[in-house]
Structures are given as C-alpha cells and as structure tokens.
Description:
Order of helices and strands: HHEHHEEHH
Shape: elongated
Strand content: 5-15%
Largest sheet: 3 strands, antiparallel
Number of strands: 3
CATH architecture: Orthogonal Bundle
Radius of gyration: 21 Å
Amino acid sequence: MDDKSAPDVALTDSVLDLGILPELIGYHLRRAQVHLFADFARTMAEAQITPGQFGVVSLIGANPGLTQSALARAVGIERSTMVAVIDTLQERGMVERKPSPVDRRSYALVLTGNGENLMERLLPMVRAHERNVARNLSAAEKERLIELLMRLIP
C-alpha cells in the first residue's frame, strides 16, 4: 500500500526539523538531564545508586534526624513517594528510621554506618561525574548556570 503522506527521504538528525523545541527551556533541560543521568549511572554502576537516591542519602547525611516530610519537601516529591525511597534505602542498610525526639508521629532519618561509608566512597565519584559533565564550562559558567537554574524554581 502506497502512503502518499510519507516523506520520500528518511529523516536523519542533520535534516530533522525540531520545530519549536529549540526555543523551549524544558526541551534543553530534559536533554541535559538525560545526558547527566546516563553519565551518573555509568559513574555509579558499581555502587548501584540513582541520582535521586544519592540526593536523599546526601541530605540525610547532612541533616541527621530529618523527617521524611521535610526531606520530601526538600527534594520536591510527594511524601508517599519518599516513603518508598526510604524503604529501599533502609532495605539496602543505608538509612535508618528512628522515633523522632520531637514528634511521636514521625521518624527521624539517619545514615547507618554502611550509609556513611557509602557516602565517603561516593563523594569522589560524584565529584568526578560533576567534572565530566561540566567539562565544557568554566567555573564561572558553571556557577552562573546553577544560579540561573535555581531562578526557575519558585
């Protein structure tokens, strides 16, 4: 069957019209995120940790006793989603829930010894990842990019 609407030439990246996409911040952010997450996954393959899990473990390590609710707000995800993340990290022996000393209805999150050791191992790897993904930026450009991205968040 002959489809008259099909183009005569297969589109390649060099002739692909991206339409409005090049004008959209979200398009470029998503492409950058895909690239950064792929590099993070390669860098952290041995540790088997996702960017989200690293962020959570990092925040707990910097703020021992943080509640799940406060952590969810800091990361910008729903509390119910955070429960599943903490469950996973707890199953892996990296995070522990302890009764909150100030609110009996919530838990205080702390890193276990394994979690602390993992963070010590991960920090040089994360710094190497960061150097790799920012290799085409000067220190001032990287600082400016972070500043601009922060301005997008209300």
